[in-house]
Specification:
With 229 residues, the protein is mainly α. It is built from 7 helices and 4 strands. Strand 1 (66-69) and strand 2 (77-80) form a beta hairpin. The structure holds flavin-adenine dinucleotide.
C-alpha cells in the first residue's frame, strides 16, 4: 500500500539484451499477481488495475553501488549503479557524498541553508476547515481539475509558481497527483494544459508531457493534422 492509499504491486526484474525493450509481458504480469496474492488478502482482479509500467534500468554487473571520486577525473564523483535498495539508501548516500565533496573541497555549511521544503497543500487530505481556509485564501482551490484524485486549480497554481515550478504535464502530476487516478489524466489533461499555457504564457501546442518533444497536441483537429501531413 502507498501513502496515498492505493496498491502498488511488483516489480519483476529480468536481464534482457534488447536495449529498447520497454514492454510489459503477460508472464511478468502473471508473476506479479501470483506473488502479490501471497501477501495481499482479496487481491483485486487484473481488470481493475489502473496502469502497468515497464522500463529499462542500467544494471551494475558487480551488484554494488559505485560511489567514489573518479581516478582519472579528479573532483568528479561517480554515484552510479544505484539499484535497489537505492531509494532506502538515498539519505545515507547523500551524507556520504557530502563527506567526499568536503574532503575534496572543504567548505562551510551555508548560513541561510533551508533544509525543509514546504509541500503543495493537498485539498484531498485537508480537513473541512483547512479546505474552507484555502478556498477563502484563493477561490481556485474550489475549482476541481483532476476529479479522480481531487486536485484543484489552486494546487496546480502552487505547483507552477513555486521555486523550480512545474512546466510540463508530468511536472504537475509529480507535484500534485493530478492525472494519477483511474482515468489516467483522460479528463484533466486539457484543463491542466490550459492552466500551464495561461500561467507560462506558452502556446498550447508547445506544452509537453515531459521532457523535450513529447508534445500532446499535433494539430487543431484531425483534418488539420492530415493537411499538415
Ligand atoms: C521498479 C523498481 C522498484 C524499485 N523498488 C525499490 C524499493 O522498493 N526500495 C528501494 O530502496 N529502491 C527501489 N528501487 C531502486 C531505486 O528506485 C533506485 O535505486 C533509485 O531511484 C536510484 O536513484 P538515482 O538518483 O541514482 O537514479 P534515478 O532515480 O534513476 O535518477 C536519475 C535521474 O537522471 C535523469 N537523467 C537520466 N539521463 C539524463 C540525461 N542525459 N540528462 C538529464 N537527466 C537525465 C533521469 O530522468 C532521472 O530523473 C526500485 C527501482 C525500480 C526500477
Amino acid at each position: 500500500p502507498t501513502v496515498h492509499g492505493n496498491l502498488l504491486l511488483g516489480p519483476t526484474a529480468e536481464d534482457i539484451d534488447d536495449k529498447e525493450g520497454q514492454f510489459t509481458t503477460e508472464s511478468g504480469l502473471a508473476e506479479i499477481m501470483r506473488k502479490a496474492a501471497l501477501s495481499v488478502d482479496k487481491l483485486p482482479p487484473m481488470r481493475q488495475v489502473i496502469t502497468s509500467f515497464a522500463g529499462l534500468r542500467a544494471h551494475e554487473a558487480m551488484d554494488d553501488f559505485i560511489i567514489e571520486e573518479v581516478e582519472d577525473a579528479k573532483g568528479f564523483i561517480d554515484v552510479a549503479g544505484i539499484e535497489s535498495p537505492g531509494l532506502t539508501c538515498a539519505p545515507a548516500i547523500g551524507a556520504f557524498v557530502a563527506e567526499l565533496v568536503n574532503n575534496i573541497a572543504p567548505g562551510n555549511k551555508k548560513a541561510n541553508y533551508i533544509s525543509r521544503r514546504t509541500g503543495v497543500k493537498s485539498m484531498a487530505s485537508a480537513s473541512r476547515e483547512e479546505q474552507m481556509d484555502l478556498i477563502r485564501s484563493n477561490p481556485a482551490y474550489a475549482n476541481v481539475i483532476c476529479r479522480c484524485e481531487m486536485v484543484t486549480e489552486g494546487e496546480i497554481l502552487d505547483a507552477i509558481h513555486r521555486p523550480l515550478g512545474a512546466r510540463t504535464l508530468d511536472g504537475v502530476k509529480r507535484r500534485t497527483r493530478a492525472g494519477m487516478g483511474r482515468c489516467q489524466a483522460g479528463f484533466c489533461t486539457p484543463k491542466t494544459m490550459e492552466i500551464l499555457s495561461r500561467e507560462w504564457k506558452m502556446d498550447l501546442n508547445a506544452i509537453v508531457k515531459s521532457g523535450k518533444d513529447a508534445y500532446v497536441l499535433t494539430g487543431y483537429n484531425k483534418q488539420s493534422m492530415e493537411r499538415e501531413g
